Each structure stands twice: as structure tokens, then as C-alpha cells.
């Protein structure tokens, strides 16, 4: 079950890397505007600094999860698990905040939080068994 949790953590990290790309590197692109519902290029420009910063939060969470996977892979289960829990747990918490605070964004919150939830659950079960 630990391996399953790490696989889900890896997928969660990849999702958050993609979010980083959209928010920090491609915010004004048609793709990012479609994903985040930003109407015009002008609206995107007005919020670019917020998205840029938020994108880096997503990058750092992805790095935490990826480092945790690496540590587990090289035999440091305790450190690696703690890093995976920190990264994916924070991803999950952010998704829950979005879900509770914005009804129109609940679908996005589910997409953002599904793999972190599965990672946390599977890893916890794997460590307890």
C-alpha cells in the first residue's frame, strides 16, 4: 500500500507542476485562461502577480512530495513519508479550502485534491499495516 500511496503522491506532484506552469509561466495564455476562467488577457494581466506567487506554492508542494518519494525509494521511510505527508497533506488542505470557500470552483477543488487524498490515505494505511 505504501507503493500505491507513493504513486498517487507522484501523480499529485505532476498535477501541481502543471498548475505551477499555468499560473506562473503561462497565466495569460488561452489555455490558462480557459482552465482558470480568466476572461480576457487584460483580466489575466491584472491578476498575474497573484497567480505567479500562487504557482510557486504549488511548485514547492510538488517538490516536497517528490523529495519524499525519493527518500522512501532510497530507504529512508520515516523522512520520506513525512515529506510526502507534508506535501500531499498541504495540497489536500488547499483543495478543501477551495471546495468550502467557492461553490463555483468545487469541481476544480476535487480535481486538485483527489490524488493528494488518495496518497495520504494509501500511505497512512500502508504505514499502519
UniProtKB/TrEMBL annotation:
The chain crosses the membrane at residues 6-23, 55-74, 80-100, 112-128. InterPro entries: DUF1304. This is Membrane protein. The lineage of its organism: Bacteria, Bacillati, Actinomycetota, Actinomycetes, Mycobacteriales. It comes from Hoyosella rhizosphaerae. It comes from the Bacteria. Keywords: Membrane, Transmembrane, Transmembrane helix. Signal peptide: none annotated. Pfam families: DUF1304. The keyword Magnesium does not apply.
Amino acid at each position: 500500500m505504501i507503493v500505491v500511496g507513493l504513486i498517487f503522491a507522484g501523480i499529485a506532484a505532476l498535477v501541481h507542476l502543471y498548475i505551477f506552469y499555468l499560473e506562473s509561466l503561462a497565466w495569460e495564455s488561452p489555455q490558462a485562461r480557459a482552465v482558470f476562467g480568466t476572461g480576457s488577457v487584460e483580466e489575466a494581466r491584472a491578476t498575474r502577480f497573484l497567480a505567479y506567487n500562487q504557482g510557486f506554492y504549488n511548485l514547492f508542494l510538488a517538490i516536497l512530495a517528490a523529495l519524499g518519494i525519493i527518500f522512501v525509494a532510497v530507504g529512508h521511510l520515516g523522512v520520506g513519508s513525512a515529506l510526502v505527508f507534508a506535501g500531499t497533506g498541504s495540497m489536500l488542505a488547499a483543495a478543501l479550502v477551495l471546495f468550502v470557500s467557492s461553490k463555483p470552483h468545487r469541481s476544480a477543488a476535487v480535481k486538485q485534491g483527489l490524488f493528494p487524498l488518495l496518497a495520504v490515505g494509501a500511505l497512512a494505511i500502508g504505514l499502519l499495516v
